[in-house]
Design a protein that fits this description.
The complex is a heterodimer of chains A (79) and B (590). Chain A is mainly alpha-helical and 79 residues long. In chain A, 54% of the residues lie in helices and 0% in strands. Chain A is built from four helices and no strands. The chains are: A mainly alpha (79), B alpha/beta (590).
Chain lengths: 79, 590
């Protein structure tokens, strides 16, 4: 289970990057649908998360990401 | 020691022979570079690539892989892709490149359609397949998994033998390449298509060697040139330009593990890339970056830049000349690596204003048109001078004909020449529709202007208005570029909602830019709409929030998008009317 405070940081960063009120994002939301982004923009978000948390994530891992839980888990296992 | 690119190309006994020749002719030249962010992870000479392909070919022979058998590759762009494919050709096999960006279920379906005896697959893609319905019941084959850690247990299925790619080799193997005749099958390439079931285009060694000959004639790459391979190698464009092409001329190919824009730009600089192929979506992104870079210059420097840009255009006398432009427009060219000689664009319609933008900066972006069914390229803009509203002239050896042209000269584009495929795998009816009296019927509409092909969209996308005018949605979409959408697409209302009594008026499905205001977008649309010819004018807009479905080469999948719209917006009332009351929108009265 993802650490809730860590998950909150990921949600905050996503909300800031794709201007959308933080309160409107929930961990189970479909990232692509909720943020209205395509895979290239999702990779850009991944780059921001890497910078912020000092990890490296291969592009292909994004294929298995659907919601913010998945995204947070990708980073958490590498920290 | 180098040899001229075309030396003996016409005498090559197939693609295996091509590699064998390249491995000797350019033995010490760099062939493949692999980079993961700032780390270079591999650099192989031509001799080393040949050596590795031979060792794998030896492993394949020991495993019983016979000439004429099929082998599929399912992997992202990397040196092991090249080595695997050439090992297949050295053994006289038939290569089946599969789309690594497709879903695992689609990949399994293609595997069952092509039934290869061998599958080369990247470890994470194999694990994704293993979690998919139908994995256990797949047909008999040998699977070689790329990049799996030694000792890791690999997913298996009853009829499948699985082992590590890295363990399948025989270092002593040195048999000469199996000779192939020009009409022997070299590959089965699935055309990504924009609708319907995938079609396996059967291409011969003769098809590829003919295409190579004409491309190398137009763009004689040589040792020292660097090609950045970004588009998936399984797709026709990179298959030709980023995989087979370099082995005819001794250039090097750069592969990246991550395709994030910042690392692509870094690679252009670090590897002093000379050639790259892009799809229009990439080019539009690059235009945005370059425009911002120019806008960010302090006012005085920006004015100077504009002056130098005008001087560059003047000195270039009608065509982009990078040598002049690099000196005068240093800030932009340095940002793109400073050594770009040609950018090839294809795979989807490209906005002429984007092409003009790059041409003014002295960056030779050559727009082209092609089909998997004809190897890759059919036409290419020679830039002498540029004709950005067209896709250029046919390649040497390719004939073009417009079938049943209308009053404006627009008809279906037909292609004939040595690059046209043998037919679709196991689809005689589809083949008979596509190949008529030796001509490949492309399904694309276009007209010829002074030998240059002007495309007008897909035949099946054409909309006939109530006034009997033909509208090509692609034309309207391009006219609306720059109005503040991330992406947009034009449909006839009755195509989207056939059972709701909608008419043939045009509806724009638009994703507003992320920081965009819907009202501003609507105002911009209304303004642009007024300037369009009456038959191209939009009746309304359907705002959309999620990314459009696209193929591996970023081509819009119209039918899939329409399906999604019918599912999520079943009522035409969701359309916002434009320019009311002058143009009635297809709203509730539809």
């Amino acid at each position: 289970m993802t650490d809730p405070s860590f998950l909150a940081q990921v949600l905050a960063l996503a909300a800031a990057r794709f201007p959308i009120p933080r309160a409107e994002l929930a961990p189970d939301d479909d990232i692509f649908e909720r943020l209205g982004i395509d895979s290239l923009q999702a990779l850009e978000l991944l780059s921001r998360l890497e910078e912020r948390f000092g990890v490296e994530i291969p592009d292909f891992e994004l294929r298995s990401v659907r919601n913010f839980h998945d995204l947070a888990r990708l980073i958490e296992v590498r920290r | 020691m180098t040899s001229r690119p075309l030396d003996g190309l016409e005498t090559r006994a197939g693609l295996g022979d091509l590699l064998d020749h390249a491995g000797r002719a350019w033995a010490g030249e760099v062939c493949l570079i692999e980079s993961d962010r700032e780390r270079e992870t591999e650099r192989l000479t031509y001799a080393e690539v040949r050596r590795r392909a031979l060792a794998l070919a030896g492993g394949l022979e020991a495993a019983g892989f016979a000439p004429g058998e099929r082998a599929a590759v399912l992997a992202s762009n990397q040196s092991k892709w090249h080595v695997s494919a050439f090992a297949v050709f050295l053994r006289g096999g038939v290569l089946v490149p599969l789309d690594f960006l497709a879903t695992p279920a689609e990949q399994l379906a293609l595997l069952e359609h092509a039934r290869p005896a061998v599958l080369f697959v990247e470890a994470h893609l194999w694990r994704a397949l293993a979690a998919t319905d139908g994995f256990q019941s797949q047909s008999r084959r040998r699977v070689l998994v790329l990049g799996a850690p030694p000792g890791e247990e690999l997913p298996a299925a009853p009829a499948v033998t699985v082992s590590r790619w890295e363990d399948c080799r025989d270092e002593r193997f040195d048999a000469p390449p199996r000779r192939r005749r020009p009409d022997d099958l070299a590959s089965i390439v699935y055309s990504s298509g924009t609708g319907g079931r995938p079609k396996g285009c059967q291409l011969t060694h003769g098809n590829y060697l003919a295409q190579l000959g004409s491309l190398v004639e137009l763009h004689p790459l040589a040792p020292g040139h660097r090609y950045l391979s970004i588009l998936p190698t399984n797709h026709a464009i990179d298959f030709m330009v980023g995989f087979i092409g370099p082995y005819a001329c001794g250039a090097a190919v750069v592969h990246l593990r991550t395709l994030r824009p910042e690392w692509v730009r870094d690679a252009l600089r670090r590897y002093r890339v000379t050639h790259v192929s892009l799809v229009p979506a990439h080019l539009a992104g690059l235009e945005g970056v370059v425009r911002r870079r120019i806008e960010d210059l302090p006012a005085a420097r920006r004015a100077l830049f504009r002056g130098l840009e005008a001087l560059t255009v003047l000195l270039s006398r009608g065509r982009p000349r990078p040598r002049i432009a690099r000196r005068l427009l240093r800030p932009v060219h340095r940002g793109l690596g400073g050594r770009l000689e040609a950018v090839f664009v294809g795979g989807a319609p490209c906005d002429p204003s984007t092409l003009r933008f790059f041409h003014r900066l002295g960056i030779p972006v050559a727009n082209g048109y092609g089909l998997t069914e004809a190897c890759t390229a059919v036409t290419l803009d020679r830039l002498d001078p540029p004709r950005p509203e067209t896709v250029g002239r046919p390649l040497p050896g390719v004939e073009l004909r417009i079938v049943e042209p209308d009053r404006d000269g627009v008809g279906e584009v037909a292609v004939r020449g040595a690059t046209v495929m043998r037919g679709y795998l196991d689809e005689p009816a589809l083949t008979a529709e596509a190949l008529v009296d030796g001509w490949l019927m492309t399904g694309d509409l276009g007209r010829l202007d002074d030998g240059h092909l002007e495309l007008r969209g897909r035949r099946k996308n054409m909309i006939v208005t109530a006034g009997g005018k033909n509208v090509y949605p692609e034309d309207v979409e391009i006219a609306l570029e720059g109005i503040g959408t991330i992406e947009h697409c034009v449909f006839a209302a009755h195509f989207l909602w056939p059972s709701r009594g909608a008419d043939e008026r045009l509806v724009l499905v638009a994703r507003p830019a992320e920081d965009g205001d819907e009202d501003i977008l609507l105002a911009a649309l209304t303004e642009t709409n007024r300037r369009l010819p009456p038959h191209q004018r939009l009746a309304g807009v359907l705002p959309w929030t999620t990314a459009f479905p696209r193929t591996a080469s970023m081509k819009l999948r119209r039918a899939a998008l329409a399906e999604e719209i019918r599912r999520r917006r079943p009522d035409p009332a969701a359309v916002v009317g434009l320019d009311r009351p002058a143009h009635r929108a297809p709203t509730t009265d539809c």
